[in-house]
Amino acid sequence: xxxxxxxxxxxxxxxxxxxxxxxxxxxxxxxxxxxxxxxxxxxxxxxxxxxxxxxxxxxxxxxxxxxxxxxxxxxxxxxxxxxxxxxxxxxxxxxxxxxxxxxxxxxxxxxxxxxxxxxxxxxxxxxxxxxxxxxxxxxxxxxxxxxxxxxxxxxxxxxxxxxxxxxxxxxxxxxxxxxxxxxxxxxxxxxxxxxxxxxxxxxxxxxxxxxxxxxxxxxxxxxxxxxxxxxxxxxxxxxxxxxxxxxxxxxxxxxxxxxxxxxxxxxxxxxxxxxxxxxxxxxxxxxxxxxxxxxxxxxxxxxxxxxxxxxxxxxxxxxxxxxxxxxxxxxxxxxxxxxxxxxxxxxxxxxxxxxxxxxxxxxxxxxxxxxxxxxxxxxxxxxxxxxxxxxxxxxxxxxxxxxxxxxxxxxxxxxxxxxxxxxxxxxxxxxxxxxxxxxxxxxxxxxxxx
Length: 450
Fold this sequence. Notes:
This protein is α/β, with parallel strands linked by helices.
């Protein structure tokens, strides 16, 4: 590796970083992370902190999961790559598909289509949704419904159903036929409703109204996160996702659960859909499926959808979609090892316990600092704080202030993520109580720096 002087001098000179202005990255060079151990990361200057971001929602088992590393190394020696396009397959991908069938059985999902990551998984689900209706003869079902504040990756299809203008405006025109509904976001919503149950019903009513306006026979699918993640950790009332499921079933609309973040224990349940007692028609997964150690994902598909595709005799069900790295044998081996370790550690149990500690600590900070307008969480290890310059009118905090909080928190022992006016926390699911306290102490120092 090049020495630290080279790395610092060239930081962001030749790299365009995702989700950042190129000029800003040059003016404010990113933190150079050079090591990871357990739930901690170390930067180029040797400063070690608790990673309260969990990589990017994906390093659920921390940075020292040896079984996954061993599986990757062994598979590289055996078969580093082969395609699973028509006519060929590989042994780890077959084993993984059977393992996932068993894991996702409570969600009613039994088939896997493998991808290279979350955005790929969303794109796949959107395409399969349209194809499903065409195979059934309902060729007019091409539209998609989704929630404002929802995040579904950055491919053109995913950006089209995204509910955040930051991922849309500079790239329009996007996919036509994508319509966005109010999210059950109690802190800010067009109904000025703060009661979660009443807000959930108002949002469900809006979905019904939009379906009536568009015509149910024109809509292919509704895509949603069981708990909105990147949009600011927005948990709905427990009635919301079951309500969406009922509406979709009644109108013949497929329900796609985007669980790139929530699958594999993040919510304190094995899946976000299971957390709310819902069986979707498709589920998008990635991130924690390999603990972030290898780019990999899977779209899980229900029996009902599988029957339509597998019993087709017209040829319309031939899937004209896939990726060079779909079913990559090294990724499949990593996923097998990761899933075994995830189950062995029973990470949802720890996510629930540590998440409750973190959520309580954040609420205590909100009593101390007026800059914290809203605290969201209470479902496993996914929490957020929305920061304001004025609580009474909910005016969002300025960028320089929230950056100051992030910098002070980092110096005090925790890497946190800022997104707009939100501080988002998604630490590894193997976090210990002492680590939670480090995060809270670092945040306290961050707020004190204002």
